[in-house]
């Protein structure tokens, strides 16, 4: 199924009048406060976030998985789903593939399809957290950190293969997330595991094309419950520095222990020019992969405030690879992703409203109350008409979720694909 421009325009006619009313009110208010509304809209319209190929089917837990009907069962169908989200939001113009779940059988056909849908190939993700059929070595006790050289070599070779696949598609970065670690004290020697990981990453780094980046993701626990080799930003930062200029840290919102100050981590990494990628999701307890902004919207805003500050003040930091890394198990995955995109755009818009000059003055005067007021003034602004206007101007839906339902997208997909389909890798 593809959504046409006419279908979106038709759906927009239902809400255009109330949207115009809301937007002109907000726009006037913001202009009076000295904001350049068209500049904010222009920044918002340029923001694109990648959709991971594994978020298009219903996710599962270790207790079970409940399929969502009409799921994509091939890479082609996954691209079509990203195309649907992109048509509605005009903000999801890239896909992040997971290898070996999404190896194309016909590269030129896949590239042609992506081009028609106006979708680019973002970072490619390697997988050494599960054994593949017919693999000689097992990752049960780790991959890049494994005590066995044969296992490490297999994992390195896999990553080099992923780079080759990504290169054929036009990707420009490799994301490495390792499940490596231990479940019990004494199981691993911490230093050996870290040293092996460092050496393996260096071997992968050597195979990186010149215009590529290596993004090193960290996570404190799960699937290992005693130690994880790359458990925090500091370890990732250290490994990236050891690898070289093309290696960066990737921050995933769900990969932190409770109450961690993620915005401060982002700010430090951007100052050092080492924040390479960013994965959005939300969580209450651990790596819950919930819809972005569904649990801690203020934290998301504070994070965006640092991202915006970094984008404006840290030319030493590269452009970020943005991706939604959520895969929930009870919602329609496409609606879930649309909600996430909406939350990301709202947080970005609010962060763009922070009066940075006034904040600097208040900080210099140690006016703590004023500092908080400035941030909350931006946070408490209802920016929804601004986000709607951005989407409308670039050909998207004023209300993507309503339009998705109005066009009966899920039923159309079930008609096309059948009820009981399962996305690869899930
Ligand atoms: Mn992630």
TrEMBL record:
Q: Can you provide one Gene Ontology molecular function annotated for this UniProt record? A: isomerase activity
Alphabetic keyword roster? Isomerase, Manganese, Metal-binding
Q: Which InterPro entries match?
A: L-rhamnose_isomerase (IPR050337), Xyl_isomerase-like_sf (IPR036237)
- Listed name of the protein: Sugar isomerase
Q: Which organism is it from?
A: Flavivirga amylovorans
